[in-house]
Specification:
By secondary structure, the chain is α/β, with parallel strands linked by helices. It has 2 domains: about 130 residues, TIM Barrel (Alpha-Beta Barrel), CATH 3.20.20; about 35 residues, no CATH class. It is built from 9 helices and 5 strands, in the order H-E-H-H-E-H-E-H-H-E-H-E-H-H. It has a 5-stranded parallel beta sheet. The longest helix has 16 residues. The chain is flat, with a radius of gyration of 17 Å. The C terminus is likely disordered.
């Protein structure tokens, strides 16, 4: 919090990612720290959901804002009915809990379209961009035409309140 206070950064602009494995050893202590940070405006994302020590009773108690579907489910969902069912269940669970659901590892249009048909509209993966050096990322964001090309490439997803973080 000291750094946020010193820099005057808006805490609502930050999403801290935690993994399920972080919760295993010291759930009570981690939960207490998360609640303190949340009270200051920071948000949380539960990364790699479904791959660690998932406990729905833990999830119910966590002050998270987002669930991130692990890339292993996304990778296999078009050829593996169990993977597709788990992906659909995570999206339904997130929606029921009023959490944003983000799919990691989206590499094909088919994956993106399937996820969108299930109600997931936030993606990360190589379909949108490979990791970029800071200079290239800045150029992408500041070059309206390049950013618009990226948005047009994926325009059939619906409205374009495009969040650059969701396009990477």
């Amino acid at each position: 919090m000291t750094t946020l206070d010193r820099t005057k950064a808006d805490p609502n602009s930050f999403v801290l990612e935690i993994t399920e494995t972080v919760l295993v050893d010291n759930f009570v202590e981690v939960l207490a720290k998360m609640k303190i940070l949340k009270s200051h405006g920071l948000r949380f994302s539960l990364d790699d959901f479904g791959t660690g020590y998932s406990s729905l009773s833990y999830l119910k108690r966590l002050p998270v804002d987002q669930l991130k579907i692990d890339h292993s489910f996304v990778r296999d969902m078009l050829v593996d009915t169990a993977g597709a069912a788990i992906t659909e269940a995570i999206i339904s669970l997130g929606r029921a809990m009023k959490l944003q659901v983000i799919a990691e590892g989206v590499e094909t249009v088919g994956q993106r379209d399937f996820l969108a048909s299930l109600g997931c509209h936030s993606f990360q993966g190589y379909l949108f961009s490979h990791p970029l050096p800071l200079e290239d990322f800045d150029r992408l964001l500041t070059s309206k035409s390049e950013f618009e090309k990226l948005c047009e490439k994926h325009s059939h997803l619906g409205s374009h309140n495009a969040d650059p973080a969701q396009l990477s």
